[in-house]
Input
Amino acid sequence: MRPRSARRPRRRTVPVLVVLAALTVITLDASLGDDSPVEPLRRAAGEVFGPVQSGMSAAVEPVASIGDFVTTVSRLRDQNADLEARNTELEALLHTSDLDRNRLAELERTQVVASGAGLDVVTAQVVGVGPAQSFSLTVTIDAGTADGIGPDMTVLNGDGLVGRVVRADRTSATVLLLGDAESVVGGRVGSSMELGFLAGDGDLSGSGRLHLTTIDSTVQPAIGDTVVTWGSKDGKPYVAGVPVGHVESLQTSPRDSSTVATVAPFVDFSSLDLVSVVVGEARRTETSALGGAEPNQ
Amino acid sequence: MTVLRTLVIAMIVVLAVNLQVGFFSGLAVNGVVPDIALLVVVAAALSRGAEYAAVLGFVAGLALDLAPPADHTAGRWALALVVTGYLAGMVRQDADRSAFVAVLTVAASAFVGTSLFALSGLVLADPGVTVAGALSVIPTAVLYDVALTPLVLPAVAWTLRRTTPMSARWAAA
Output
């Protein structure tokens, strides 16, 4: 393309320039955090890659479920997918309403009206999974701000808590899973109502555990205890009362007399498919909560 | 022609990134999927040389850094793939004809690429990156990448060959 003489010095220049460019991006993103100029770029990339991921996931579905090979059953399959989505939605509601009773007692004490505490959820499908090579546990879901999803919303499925939304584009959102090393969830031990923090162990194979440290170190959770989310103001990033997992084992450190409990999450992170995102805590009665999909804010 | 070539390579990169997080997530081994984007960069290095591969590595790496569901510090894959692409391009002359050398280049590149990414995580104190985690992930990634080489490398090399000579002739005229 270029004369040989001009090519030789450029050979070094270009790689050095791109290395410097990469280092600049890293520095900007690492030092500026949430205000980093990379955020708009991420959002733009999400707008482009999100729909491609959704489309591709839909395209490879027939390959993945090789059993449904006849195209005439596609109508039934659509129906089935709808029902599955509905089922997950209802199961999620069931779980949460079950645990809302615990929360209700809590809320009554603080004199907050919670008679119809339900959850508005949006059901979405997992279309992309972060590779272990990236050392983080994140997934892409095929619903975004257009469906009312925003950052710091609780994500759950029929089994329990999945994680929280960290970033949302128009048609897709990124979910940080519970097991990620950066994930910390406030938890409440079911039997004693004791509070603690659940941190992900960062295990990348999808069979990770959570480490529960109780705030009151004199209280030991019992093995088999169910841990639910403790919840935060306005349900962000986590709504209260979502089942997280059960206590599997206890490790006591004599030095600082603290106990760390290993919690096995209810959700199998290696086979996530349909998830529900809590878009609002509807202070309405049961029917509207079942209606789902309508954002509250 | 240059526009067309850029479009084609951009499409390959988008496809590679999405295959990596989408399609192959169902075929993951302990969470590890083949680094399709890295294989594309190595293929470009072997057929187009170090300089081209370094630039493509930057683009593909940035796509990996920014496309959902990535949530790590942006630029880390870009840096890893720039260096990988440049190094792979250095062995181009030897790897041109021999499939064996091509496979060796892929193995070495996969090792360098995934290790550099892990190292940058350690330097930036990313809580997800642990030495133990890296030691279990990197070998799996290298093996998976080598296994996918016969499928990805020829396809990318063919596409690049199809788009290159025309433009080369064009530029020369």
